[in-house]
Amino acid sequence: MKLINIIATTLLCVTAATTVYADVDSRAVSRMVAFEESHWGTIKYTPTEELSRPKNLVPKQFYTADFLDALPQPKPTKQLRCLAEALYFEARGETVKGQFAVAEVILNRVENSRYPDTVCGVINQGTGRKFACQFTYTCDGRAETINEEAAYSRVSKVASLLLNGKVERKLTNGATHYHSTAVRPKWAKKFPKTTKIGSHIFYRQPTRISKN
């Protein structure tokens, strides 16, 4: 009987110790998670780790050349090539953030019923009529030759991140249009401005355009 009591007591102690340990371990994990989240802006991650973070947290590192240069070259697809080409000719001289912003406009149009429902369709809309296209480089009569391979490699990665949903489109507040600060198109008076990034001003197409 004494032996049975000893065994029972031992088992109770082990169970209690395991419960306490599990509770402590759980609290430790919770503290670690809280610490990581509160220091999200300062912790350094590899590009692969960055892309595995929750999409509602968009770290500033995404918008740097160093971050993009560390990523592997994406597998080319038709839609990716169209978007990368547009970014190359429309925004290769912009900051990385500016390149993401121009890409957002194109993808916002894809989701807008007023425009074609593919990236290539949006970019090539109106092509064939000189200066009647949506993106000037497609109808300005100049050869579309890519001479800066490093710049094209970088914008290809921007295109890939957005097309694959790795980065949310939060920069332009739903913009469907943009223009350089060097020009002032007539439509800009009627469209609500959403933001300015680099040398581009961004606008969202209104539901109904005023005739004034």
Protein described:
The protein has 212 residues and is mainly alpha-helical. It has helices at residues 2-38, 47-51, 65-69, 78-91, 96-110, 119-123, 149-163; strands at residues 177-180, 193-197, 200-203. Strands 1-3-2 form a three-stranded antiparallel sheet, with helices on one face.
Please identify the oligomeric state: single chain
Which architecture of the largest domain does the CATH hierarchy give at level 2? Orthogonal Bundle
Write down the CATH class of the largest domain: Mainly Alpha
How many individual helices? Answer: 7
CATH topology label of the largest domain? Arc Repressor Mutant, subunit A
Tell me the CATH superfamily of the largest domain. Answer: Cell wall hydrolase SleB, domain 1
Structural class based on helices, strands and sheet pairing? mainly alpha
What's the number of domains? 2
Number of strands: 3
Short description:
With 212 residues, the chain is mostly helical.
